[in-house]
Every structure is written in structure tokens, then in C-alpha cells.
């Protein structure tokens, strides 16, 4: 293992040195896969997060019209594959999609189906692609350190409630497309990631590091999601354009990963969302 790591580091040093000494020489171009990430609030309120948005009935006539407009706008990205927040190893979601294509299934009030299924059918896709790893959860329990870090944890609660309160106001006042445009802003993505660094990571003492362990578990889950997306784009040599529909807590981190990867050309999702 050490030998392989040494070879990898040597190759990196060689490439860096070559680039510095030969600035006019370009490395071979890498074919990137266009990918757009749509960060969501959960339509069906599963209450699995510490802070949860209160969605109204997504099945109302008003919201259904908004969803139709949203899906038509997302179609302008022209995705060839749609990756959804569902267990990678569970075929149940794609089975439901097959029934939906046959007109034998009524969509459940989740963003996976209300947006993912609709868009996939509109684009003529034969399948949808679950890429989640839900067995890995962000398990943060400060335990005996709760009292010592009480001020920081209180700030976390207040900050989270403020953010969710703002999103709830948007949900009450705006269309789904307008809410998602705000939810997928660079500012909100940065704020999302910063919560882990600012409020969770410092919670620890000596060998007891619940904050660090929690952040590591969240990164691990999202790295698994990234790996599943990599596997999706490498299944064959066809050109792909991938739309990823996940909770915004995931997409903010996935953008962070993909920004430094030569595999992906990350597209600005806001250009594929309805204008207000």
C-alpha cells in the first residue's frame, strides 16, 4: 500500500513539475459529463433531519400546475439519466417507475416521484437511477459534552431554526420553482456546509469527538453517493447528461466534491429553473 501511495505521489509531483516547466503544453483533454444537481426540500416531510421544512400539500391543483411548469423547465437541461435519493441497492423505486410508465401507478407526494418520475417519462427514459446510501446516517450525540458545549449547540439550534423558518416562508409565499431557485443559491450551499464546520466539528475533547464523528459520517454517506453516480456514468461509453435530485444538504456537499473532479462539468441548476 505504501509503495502504491509513493508511486501516486511521485506521479503527482511529476505532473505538477511538467506543468510548471512547460506552461504551453496542455495535459490531454478529459471528456466531462455534464451534471446538474437540484437541491430539494422534502415534499413528504419524512422528519428525518434535525431541521425540517413544512411543505403544504404537493397534490393540490395549484402545486401540481407549478410542478408541471418546473418539470418542463428542467427538461431544457436535456438529461439522459436522472439520479434520485433512494437506496442504490433497492429496485423498488424503478419498479414503481415501470408501473407509472404503464399508467398503473399514481405518484406519491415525494420529490423523487413528483419531479423525478414526471421528468424521466417526459424525456422518454426507460429507467430511473437510485444512488443513495441511507444506511449511513449523521449520528451526532454530544453525550456528556452537551453541557460544556451548550452555547455552541444552542447557536446551532437557533441558526437551523432561522434558516428553516425562512424556507418555510418561501414555501408559503412562492411557487415551487421560486423556492428551489433560492434553495440552490451559492449562498445557501455555503451556509449549509458551514454549519458542519462551525457547530459540529468543534464538539469534542480528547479521544471523545462526537462532532468530528458526525461530520465524518455525513461525508462518508455523500462520498458513497458520489461513487454511485460515478458508476452510473461509467456503465457504458454513451454520452450522458445527469440530473441529480436530492435533499439540499446532500447536493451542497456533492457540488463541493465535483468542483474538484475532472469527471464532471457541473451545470448551474438555476438556469434550468422557472423564472419568477
Explain how this protein is built.
With 276 residues, the chain is an alpha/beta fold. The chain has one domain (30-272). Helix content is 50%, strand content 11%. It contains nine helices and five strands. It has helices at 2-21, 61-74, 92-101, 111-122, 150-173, 176-183, 186-200, 210-233, 248-259; strands spanning 33-40, 81-87, 129-132, 242-247, 264-267. The protein has a five-stranded parallel β-sheet with strand order 3-2-4-1-5, sandwiched between helices. Helix 7 (186-200) packs antiparallel against helix 8. The protein is globular. The model has no long low-confidence stretch (mean pLDDT 90).
Topology (SSEs and partners):
Layout lengths: L1 H20 L11 E8 L20 H14 L6 E7 L4 H10 L9 H12 L6 E4 L17 H24 L2 H8 L2 H15 L9 H24 L8 E6 H12 L4 E4 L9
Parallel strand pairs: 1-4, 1-5, 2-3, 2-4
Helix pairs in contact: 2-4, 7-8, 7-9, 8-9
Helix content: 40-55%
* End-to-end distance: 54 Å
Count of domains: 1
Tell me the strand order in the biggest sheet: 3-2-4-1-5
Q: What structural category characterises the helix and strand content?
A: alpha/beta
Number of separate strands: 5
Number of helices: 9
Give the amount of beta strand, in percent: 5-15%
- Poorly predicted regions are none
State Rg.
21 Å
Tell me, what's the shape?
A: globular
Mean pLDDT: 90
| Quaternary structure | single chain
Q: Strand-and-helix sequence, N→C? A: HEHEHHEHHHHEHE
Specify the biggest β-sheet: 5 strands, parallel
Amino acid at each position: 500500500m505504501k509503495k502504491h501511495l509513493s508511486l501516486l505521489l511521485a506521479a503527482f509531483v511529476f505532473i505538477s513539475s511538467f506543468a510548471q516547466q512547460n506552461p504551453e503544453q496542455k495535459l490531454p483533454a478529459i471528456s466531462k459529463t455534464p451534471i446538474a444537481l437540484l437541491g430539494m426540500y422534502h415534499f413528504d416531510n419524512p422528519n428525518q433531519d434535525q431541521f425540517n421544512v413544512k411543505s403544504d400539500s404537493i397534490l393540490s391543483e395549484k402545486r401540481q400546475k407549478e410542478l408541471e411548469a418546473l418539470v418542463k423547465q428542467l427538461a431544457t437541461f436535456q438529461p439522459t439519466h436522472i439520479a434520485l435519493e433512494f437506496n442504490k441497492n433497492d429496485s423498488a423505486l424503478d419498479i414503481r417507475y415501470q408501473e407509472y410508465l404503464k399508467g398503473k401507478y399514481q405518484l406519491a407526494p415525494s420529490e423523487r416521484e413528483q419531479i423525478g418520475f414526471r421528468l424521466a417519462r417526459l424525456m422518454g427514459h426507460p429507467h430511473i437511477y437510485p444512488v443513495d446510501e441511507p444506511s449511513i446516517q449523521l449520528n451526532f450525540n454530544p453525550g456528556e459534552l452537551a453541557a460544556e458545549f451548550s452555547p455552541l449547540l444552542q447557536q446551532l439550534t437557533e441558526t437551523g431554526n432561522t434558516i428553516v423558518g425562512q424556507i418555510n416562508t418561501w414555501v408559503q409565499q412562492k411557487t415551487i420553482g421560486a423556492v428551489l431557485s433560492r434553495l440552490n443559491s451559492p449562498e445557501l450551499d455555503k451556509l449549509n456546509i458551514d454549519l458542519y464546520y462551525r457547530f459540529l466539528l468543534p464538539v469534542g475533547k480528547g479521544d471523545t469527538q462526537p462532532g468530528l464523528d458526525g461530520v465524518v459520517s455525513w461525508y462518508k454517506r455523500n462520498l458513497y453517493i458520489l461513487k454511485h453516480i460515478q458508476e452510473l456514468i461509467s456503465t457504458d461509453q454513451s454520452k450522458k447528461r445527469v440530473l441529480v435530485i436530492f435533499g439540499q444538504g446532500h447536493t451542497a456537499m456533492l457540488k463541493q466534491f465535483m468542483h474538484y473532479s475532472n469527471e464532471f462539468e457541473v451545470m448551474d441548476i438555476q438556469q434550468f429553473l422557472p423564472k419568477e
